[in-house]
Design a protein that fits this description.
single chain, 184 residues, alpha+beta, 4-stranded mixed beta sheet, 4-stranded antiparallel beta sheet, 6 helices, 10 strands, 24% strand
């Protein structure tokens, strides 16, 4: 996603009445364990409700949805000597390709973690699977029916059904494909 798409996404999330299974708002909370737990919860919840992506947004008040800005700088955050992003990746299993975006909205810094839905198995952080129940983060094992449903959904996952590159226009798509070879 480019900056304009991120800003549109954040504004669409802000327009919702409340946080939900695929959206979490933060201001400055940068506790690395909590971030890992939220990535797990949002990834699993997105899969459960059949959404391709979930989001953690820093710089938006979770009650009013007003843009207040954030002092959280994920690319500058270190755990020991390791960058936050690398640290999170090593503790998430199966590995997921979450993305970190930093943009300005209303002249205030906003950070967005774009979290893909779980695919072949529920995503764990530090060996624990999490899920969202409404706007609350909780352990997946505490909700056995949701866990069963999630496993059923993920067991039917097929790579070929995924979108290779979202938000790509026709000209770009054609430039990436060697479609004349198809006719040969």
């Amino acid at each position: 996603m480019n900056s304009d798409q991120i800003i549109r996404t954040v504004n669409a999330l802000r327009a919702m009445r409340r946080e939900h299974e695929c959206a979490e708002f933060k201001v400055n909370n940068s506790d690395e364990d909590e971030i890992g737990e939220y990535i797990s919860a949002l990834s699993n919840s997105a899969a459960l409700i059949k959404e391709p992506t979930a989001f953690i947004v820093w710089g938006v008040n979770d009650v009013s949805h007003e843009v207040v800005g954030t002092s959280f700088k994920p690319h500058a955050t270190k755990i020991g000597k390791e960058a936050l992003e690398n640290w999170l990746v090593t503790l998430l299993y199966p590995r997921i390709n979450f993305k970190i975006h930093e943009v300005e909205i209303e002249d205030k810094p906003v950070v967005v973690f774009e979290v893909p839905a779980a695919r072949e198995a529920p995503v764990r952080f530090r060996e624990t699977e999490y899920i969202r129940v409404g706007s609350a983060k909780t352990k997946l094992k505490d909700y056995p029916q949701r866990e069963r449903t999630l496993w059923q959904l993920l067991s039917g996952y097929r790579f070929e059904q995924d979108i290779a590159m979202p938000d790509v226009d026709e000209d770009t798509t054609l430039s990436l494909l060697d479609y004349p070879a198809y006719f040969d």
